[in-house]
Amino acid sequence: MSRFEKLQKDLSPIICILIMALDIVAGILAIKAEKAEHKVKHGRMWILECRSPSQDSYNKGLAASILLIMGHAIVNVISGCTYIRSKKDLQEATANKKLAVIFLILAWIVLAVAFSFLVIGTLANTKSKKPCTMPHTHFLTIGGILCFFHGLFSVAYYVSAAAEAREETRRNEKKHHPQTSTA
Q1: CA separation, residue 147 to residues 72, 74, 104, 122, 176 (Å)
Q2: What does the pLDDT look like over 74-94, one tens digit per residue?
Q3: What is the pTM of this model?
């Protein structure tokens, strides 16, 4: 086992906790941003909602968006890129590699949706907002909940990608150093 593999194996629990912590804090901040948004005075005129923007909600929504992106960037940089290029690759891929690709795709999809919801909810609280617009209800809460799912998919991707990397290393070692038997 190389020094890098040993370091990666030793740090894996810390990396998983870091990724989950970033996404959990992002989710909690987004939900708190939604609560702060509801504390400002607002009124409804037919289908329009008239209210003052909430600076507290804006700050928390922005922080949640940044933390979500940071968690995603960390897991992708550390895990590398796991991919399957062809049908032949798919047939020859190990279970860990298939799982890594599935969780990577799910993490990207959830990131796109969660980030979109967080940005829409956050922008609804900018100071330059017109006083009466269509209501942006629950965007921050939904984005926050999706942050939790992003954390789960990201950790699952990291674990399966790390397991695939260990399997790949073992296969390469067997190819380059075949066992010789002495009779």
Answers
A1: 10, 15, 15, 15, 43
A2: 999 888 777 788 888 888 888
A3: 0.83
